[in-house]
């Protein structure tokens, strides 16, 4: 939602300061919430103006700005899992990050995660054992 204009904010404050009226009556008169009127009055007292604060702004990742270090880590340990990358990050940078944060940082840099080589080797062994077992049972027939 857009912030109320400075002119409108000043009218609310001026109306309260001019009359012997309550905050609730001012809020209903201008069709705004009671808390907005309270905030505007407090802002006028403390800051001397009623200009709205800057809105929005995206949140930066915990790993924002660490692109070269992440790339170096992946190059150094290409077979590591996300959990292992997170553990390594804690050890080297004293900053804990979740696996999802690490995954997003890797995806932004287009660094893909490879499955461990030993997982592929295990799969090959399973396949060779199952083919050996099936051949062994065929030879009995």
Short note summarizing the structure:
The protein is 65% helix and 0% strand.
Mean pLDDT across every amino acid position: 82
Shape: elongated
The helix tally amounts to 7
Major sheet description: none
Kindly name the structural category. mainly alpha
Name the poorly predicted regions.
Answer: none
SSE order, one letter for each helix or strand: HHHHHHH
Strand content: under 5%
Describe this structure in words.
- The chain is mostly helical and 141 residues long.
- Helices cover 65% and strands 0% of the residues.
- α2 crosses α3 and α5 (82-93) packs across α6 (99-108).
- The protein is elongated, with a radius of gyration of 31 Å.
Features:
single chain, 141 residues, mainly alpha, 7 helices
Write the SSE topology.
Elements lengths: L5 H13 L4 H8 L3 H14 L19 H10 L5 H12 L5 H10 L8 H24 L1
């Amino acid at each position: 939602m857009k912030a109320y204009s400075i002119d409108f904010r000043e009218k609310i404050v001026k109306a309260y300061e001019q009359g012997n009226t309550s905050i609730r009556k001012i809020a209903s008169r201008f069709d705004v919430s009671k808390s907005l009127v309270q905030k505007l009055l407090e802002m006028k007292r403390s800051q001397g103006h009623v200009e709205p604060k800057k809105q929005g702004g995206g949140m930066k990742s915990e790993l924002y700005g660490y692109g070269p270090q992440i790339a170096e880590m992946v190059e150094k340990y290409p077979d590591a899992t996300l959990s292992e990358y997170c553990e390594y990050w804690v050890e080297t940078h004293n900053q804990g990050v979740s696996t999802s944060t690490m995954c997003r940082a890797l995806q932004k840099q287009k660094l893909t995660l490879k499955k461990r080589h030993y997982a592929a080797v295990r799969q090959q062994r399973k396949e060779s054992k199952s083919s050996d077992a099936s051949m062994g049972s065929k030879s009995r027939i």
